[in-house]
TrEMBL record:
Protein name (database record): ABC-2 type transport system permease protein
Keyword Transmembrane helix appears in the UniProt entry: yes
Keywords noted in UniProt: Membrane, Transmembrane, Transmembrane helix
Classification of source organism: Bacteria, Bacillati, Actinomycetota, Actinomycetes, Micrococcales
Organism: Microbacterium natoriense
UniProt keyword annotation of Transmembrane helix present: yes
Transmembrane segments: 21-43, 55-78, 99-126, 132-159, 171-193, 213-231, 238-261, 281-298, 305-325, 337-359, 379-405, 417-437, 458-484, 490-511
């Protein structure tokens, strides 16, 4: 059964790669990024092994706790895409006791599991400060990996019924995106709190010592205690680690058995309501209908709700980081720069428009069957997005100028934000017609396959960024010059509105022509399940 489940998971991955060459490229790029991270980890541990061996042990315990927590929390984000979910076996004559070993080994031999194993092996560089600790470090690798995999299964199993509801999944996704986006701000807050406590090294050492007695890092605390010469503590921590595995194993088995006899079915988002006032105010044309549908998607589709949330919070988070680090101090000279932070949303605007077709998935066939022209699709989506984006940018520009204490820079802030945003959206409307990207299917895990658009989105970003910067240079340049001559802010606003309007028209017209020629190919690309 173990060999069958492991081979089944890898065969599924092989079929997906064979059907979608873009997924191969994405896997290669992701693998190279992971190898780069592991190389940095190895270099850091090697340096600390000789320069600061005691600090290396502390870092190892904290890193181990982060890896375990990453597995446990990450299970909430990827459980919906589990190819070996219990529900898939509910009609087969198998028991939880037969399935669980294979599922655990299959989870440990995924790409993420193999990467974790390699990271645990690299941590032996740090444990080599002591011969016995090095030997124990080798032995705890399977123990630590088992805690990661089993803990992830238990947490996802306990919350499976809650996550089966649409609103719960949307909430988890939105919180996850916000936490990821605000990670820099959170790190700043943590470091500031640690600095207030006094000696940073002692604070981290105390935290590692406490975590070493918890299920999160008990396995890593065993060699750490041996390095410290406390064999008794090492034995107790080993017992905690083994007990954690035993408890998680039986809990996983019980949860698996329950799901085999009572499969969990995902539910939708509830009753569909009629459109709002803005929807009814749009023209009764193909452009107006597509704009109205886009507005409903921005309210109801969790993948696009996150886009709107990110447009609102990303500049706010960046402004928070600037103020936390004191960069708004006039003596440093970064105060006026805060007024340009809303222009960061230009990056999001291009990506949102570029992936607009991918979010439709196979529902895009409706446009083909009804004979919608490509230009109507492009203008409609731009109109729907503009109704959401323009008010957000106005609010962010006003807030940034007030926080910076420079209301005289309002025209320049608006010129940079609206101009770059419009140019980026127009570029996205054009590029998205031949590089639509990949997005998770409706009701699928928003963090699953295709959540970042795949390689097509990377290529699209490489195309859109130069266009945005070149065409937006006048608006951005005048906005920067307004720091010293505020009247130039009006020139920035004029350039932003004129060039932005031209970019929107040009992007929609050119993208529409491409779509008129490529509707079948685009439908095949965005609806593929590979």
């Amino acid at each position: 059964m173990v060999a069958l489940l492991v081979s089944l998971r890898w065969r599924q991955l092989g079929h997906q790669l064979a059907r979608n060459p873009w997924m191969i490229v994405t896997l290669i790029i992701t693998g190279l990024m992971a190898l780069g991270f592991l190389a940095v980890l190895a270099a850091g541990l090697f340096a600390m092994r000789f320069a600061a061996p005691e600090a290396a042990v502390t870092v190892l315990v904290l890193t181990g706790a982060v890896i375990t927590a990453g597995w446990w929390i990450g299970s909430l984000l990827v459980s919906a895409d589990d190819t070996l979910a219990a529900e898939r076996f509910s009609l087969l004559p198998v028991t939880a006791r037969q399935l669980l070993p294979g599922m655990v080994i299959a989870g440990a031999t995924t790409i993420g599991g193999l990467g974790t194993t390699l990271a645990l092996a690299l941590m032996l560089l740090g444990w080599s400060v002591n011969g016995l600790a090095l030997l124990v470090g080798v032995l705890i690798i399977p123990l630590a990996l088992a805690i990661c995999v089993l803990g992830a299964r238990v947490i996802s199993g306990l919350l499976a019924r809650w996550l089966a509801r649409r609103r719960s999944r949307d909430l988890v996704m939105t919180i996850g995106v916000l936490l990821a986006a605000s990670s820099g701000l959170l790190i700043n807050l943590v470091l500031a709190a640690v600095r207030e406590m006094g000696d940073v090294g002692s604070v981290f050492a105390d935290a590692a010592d406490v975590l070493g007695w918890t299920p999160l890092a008990a396995a890593f605390g065993v060699p750490a205690s041996i390095v410290a010469g406390d064999i008794g503590a090492a034995g107790l921590r080993l017992l905690i680690g083994l007990a954690t595995v035993a408890v998680l194993w039986f809990a996983s088995q019980a949860l698996l058995a329950a799901r085999l006899v009572a499969p969990i079915q995902s539910s939708g988002g509830g009753r569909v309501r009629s459109g709002g006032v803005i929807d009814r105010m749009l023209p009764a044309t193909a452009v107006g209908a597509i704009a109205a549908r886009s507005l409903r998607y921005f309210r109801r589709d969790p993948r696009q709700v996150v886009n709107v949330v990110m447009m609102l919070f990303l500049p706010a988070i960046l402004i928070g980081v600037v103020f936390m680090n004191g960069l708004q101090d006039e003596s440093i000279g970064f105060g006026p720069v805060v007024t340009l932070v809303p222009a960061i949303d230009a990056l999001l605007a291009g990506t949102i428009m570029q992936m607009a077709l991918a979010y439709d998935n196979d529902a895009l066939a409706l446009h083909i069957h009804t004979g919608v022209r490509g230009s109507a699709d492009r203008f409609g989506r731009l109109l729907g997005f503009g109704i959401i984006a323009v008010p957000l940018l106005l609010v962010l520009c006003v807030a940034s100028c007030v926080l910076a204490g420079r209301p005289d820079l309002m025209p320049g802030s608006l010129g940079a934000a609206l101009g770059l945003g419009a140019i980026s959206a127009g570029a996205g409307a054009w590029v998205g017609s031949f590089l639509p990207g990949r997005a998770p299917a409706p009701e699928a895990n928003p963090f699953g396959r295709g959540s970042s658009g795949g390689v097509q989105s990377l290529i699209a970003m490489a195309v859109m960024s130069p266009i945005t910067l070149i065409l937006g240079a006048p608006a951005l340049g005048f906005a920067i010059a307004a720091f010293w001559t505020p009247a130039l802010g009006w020139a920035s606003l004029a350039c932003g509105l004129v060039v932005g309007a031209a970019a929107i028209w040009g992007g929609a017209a050119l993208g529409g022509r491409v779509l008129d020629r490529r509707w079948p190919q685009v439908l095949a690309e965005v609806s593929s399940e590979a």
